[in-house]
Amino acid sequence: MRDMRSKKTVEVYGLVEWANKQLARTDEYAGMEFKAGIATMLERILMDSGNYNGFGFINNDDSAIGTEGYYSRYYNLPYHTYTKRQLVSYEDNGDF
After folding, report:
1. Cα separation of 39 and 16, whole Å?
2. Dihedrals φ, ψ of 73, to 5°?
3. Angle between the 32-48 and 12-23 helix axes, to the nearest 10 degrees?
4. In terms of DSSP H, where are the helices of the chain?
5. Domain assignments of the chain as residue spans, ordered by start
6. What is the dihedral of CA 77, 80, 81, 82, to 10 degrees?
7. What percent of the chain has pLDDT over 70?
8. Which has more confidence, 49 or 10?
9. Residues near 70 by Cβ (< 8 Å), separated by ≥ 6?
10. What does each C-alpha distance from 37 to 16, 43, 45 come to in angstroms?
11. Which secondary structure element, helix H or strand E, spans residue 89, and what is its range?
12. Which of 64, 15, 68 is nearest to 43 (CA)?
């Protein structure tokens, strides 16, 4: 049987930029579940790659836990990531 694991390299800066745009969306397809999935995956990648640097709410007045506003946020990257455009390697081992 073939080994289904694969190794991918992703640019962290570009991934955070894309995710922040998704988390700022307000259309009907970008609900709480959608944003929770984006945030969860992004946090895992940032933590595993040593690039987690916190997040901020897009609207502090609409940030109660369990609401769509809680996931309407933006993620920060460490300064060195912006200057080096750091890459992160990620091995898909089915460990989710």
Report:
1. 10
2. -145, 175
3. 160
4. 12-23, 32-48, 68-71, 79-84
5. 8-86
6. 90
7. 71
8. 49
9. 32, 57, 63, 64
10. 14, 10, 12
11. strand 87-92
12. 15
